[in-house]
Amino acid sequence: MSSKTFSVSIAQEQINALARGLSKTEIYNLSDKEIETLLSIAVHNWIDTLLGPRRFRTMTELYVAWLRDIHTRHLTDEEPNDIRLFTRLGFPYGQASYIARVLLMEQPLTTRQKSLSNLQTALTAALTRVKENKWNKEKLEIERVKITVSKGSRKELDAILDVLTKRGVNVHPTKIEGTMGSYQVILVIAADLQILVTEVGKLVELVSTRG
Prior knowledge:
Layout: H1 12-22, H2 32-50, H3 59-73, H4 82-88, H5 93-106, H6 109-133, H7 137-142, E1 144-150, H8 151-167, E2 175-180, E3 183-189, H9 193-210
Helix pairs in contact: 2-3, 3-5, 4-5, 6-8, 6-9
């Protein structure tokens, strides 16, 4: 499909609002290229919603669709999370939690790659710490190691544990120590780390080939 380029003027207040809500860092700043991308997303979604085939039964459905496009084209390295929706985009917390959960369940391929990569990094770092401690076999079976992961990464970890359990592999249940914003602190039995690192490595390779 052919396309045309148009110039669009937006007020500084609108630029500031975009930066507060959708900048990729806590420094509220967007490059001209990022603003162009967001304006393109806005125009396409407005046309599709008002004039196109998409019809939404609720405002929440509409917000999910719009935010899906934002994460696909702009916030590509960030998992959907209720903290941004609540603190920076002003959604009520219950609605923010629901929207983030829906978007995580859909898990676009790029988002899943990020979740798996972060999980792999956390597990590998934990395994390195354990090897440096040179624990004996008995201690490995009882000591828990702390990892901090996003909700998307935690979902991938749960799925790996489920698959391993169904295979009859001897792994232990994890424990949640606490939550920090969009992240969870997980306690993993040290003896399980090598198995988990191997499994997540296979998944990272599999998902990357699909991309």
